[in-house]
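Hi Prof. W.,

I finally got the ParB-like N-terminal domain-containing protein prediction working! I wasn't sure whether to trim anything, so I left the full sequence exactly as given:
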Amino acid sequence: MSRARKAASPVLGAAMSVIDAAAEALVPQDSRFRHSFEAPLARIRPDPSQPRKQFNPEEISSLAATMAAEGQLQPVLLKRDPELRGGWILVAGERRWRAARHNGWTSLLAIEHEGDAALAALLENLQRVDLTPAEEARGVQRLIAERKLSQAEVATLLGKSAGEVSATLRLLTLPSDFLDRATPLPRNLLVELARLDPGALRDRLMAQAEAGNLTVRALRAGIEAG
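And this is what came out:
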C-alpha cells in the first residue's frame, strides 16, 4: 500500500502565504517563472527530447522513499503541452516525477517556466552528476547544434573548461552502440579510447574495456606496444 502524503502544517501554510504575498512585489510580471502550483500527475509527461534516457530504478525507489517520508522538497519545472489542453511537459525534475508515480501520488508541486524551456532542460540535465558519458556527450552536441554555440560558450554555460567540453565531444567518435553499453566504464578510460583512430587496435582495447580488463595505464601501455 502506498504511503499517504503528509498533511500540510497550518502554521507552515500560513507562513508560506505571507512569503508568497511578499514575493509578489519582487517578481516582475514578465518573469520566466510563475508561483508554484499543484499539477495533476496524469497531465504531466516527460520531454521526448530530454537528453537523459536512463534512470536507475534503485535511485528512483530511494528518492520515492525520501519523498514519501519528507514530502516534495523542490518543485518540478514545467512548460505547457501544445498537444494536450491543460497538459504539461517536464522541463526539469523527471526523477521527482518518476518517484511520485512510484509512490502513487496524484499531483506534484510545480513551477511554470515560460522562458527557453529547451535550453533550461539541456543545461539542467548536463549539470547533473549522474549522467552517463554518452548522455553528456550527446547533450553537449545537441546544445552546440541547436543553439549555434561554440565549445567555449558551452564551457562557460556549464562551468567547465574548454578542454573538458572538447574531451566530452570526442567520445562521440566511438561507436554509438559501444557508448551505450559502456555506462559502467570510467569516463577517463572512454576519453583515452576516443583518442585512438578507428581500427583493429581500438576495437581490441574496447573489447578489453567491456570485459573489465582494461585500465587507463594498461591502455596506454597497449598503445605503446601497438
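The chain has three domains: 31-115, 116-172, 175-225. Does that look reasonable to you?

Thanks,
D.
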